User: What shape does this take?
Amino acid sequence: MATPPHLSPKLVVGIGSLLLTLAATWATMRTSGYPSERSLPAWPKTLGSRLRDELPRGDHLTAAWVAVALWSVLVSGLHFGGVYYNVYTAMPWWDLMTHAMGGLGVAALLAFTFRGSTLRSPFWLVPAVLAIGAGFEVYEFLFKAFWHHWTLEFYVEDTAIDLILNTSGAVVFAAATAVYRSRVRSESTTGDPGGDPVGTDTD
Assistant: This one.
């Protein structure tokens, strides 16, 4: 009798992803900038409150949220289009691109939801996106079947590359946010009133 895929040596990927999720979550909560005043279960409510308050404003914040939404639609379209038209098999770099773009998009969503703390210190986004990415790998291990025919070596390699690219997207966004923060602070010291169009209100 064949060993079920979930009980095969590939179980190491599922367990490893779970442990990485927990470790990255722990690191996120201890990284400067983490919105510690908000519990994890309250994050969706915080996002909803942000959207209700800021989408109708018609200013830079509205434009920022629209940009995040359009980016999400683009990434989703590239992913599902790639699956439907078998692009992932024909163009291996497609998977790399969508994972990096997805990581950047998740970082942007977190950053705009917790804008005040992120502008103070944006690099908490990196372990946060890693935790979310690793958690998604656990989900795929439990509920998807595409990996059942993969070798253990290929599964480990694919998972590692996915997580690296997810996190690289978050690194790019966090670095860009740090540059933006420095520019705003520089303009504020010179008396330029045009700084900080996205606001620095509290979370």
